[in-house]
Specification:
Length: 140
Amino acid sequence: MKKLVLSLIAVLAIAFSANAANYKVDNNAIDNIIENATEVVTLDVNTPAASLPTFAPKKAGEVNITTAFLLSWLVGVFGVHRHYMGTSGWMWLIYTITGGGLGIVYAVDTILLFLDLIKVGEGGYLKKYINNEKFIVWLG
């Protein structure tokens, strides 16, 4: 009961100390922000597909092996590393739903990219991944 009363007192103290009279509005600063803002273009639902931006396939020189390995190691279970290496935009969804292929596909991807990073694979594994649409790249 003591914790509840103390928590209630703390919440009320914070609520009363956060008074709107303590805050000042600088209209000139707001006007400057609005004047210097960049316009954001939104897409209309009726925009033809031909005018939408497309993603160009990656080339071997555009993919950094260190970045690919770190993405695979840190957030590979979500397939971010595959997206970085030029796979279709939906591969992250497959990785996320399956948990990186129950962790197996994600683990093998990370190991192969690590072997390429320390020059055991000599660039062979990375070349397999670039623009590859298969879920399990290393089998085919």
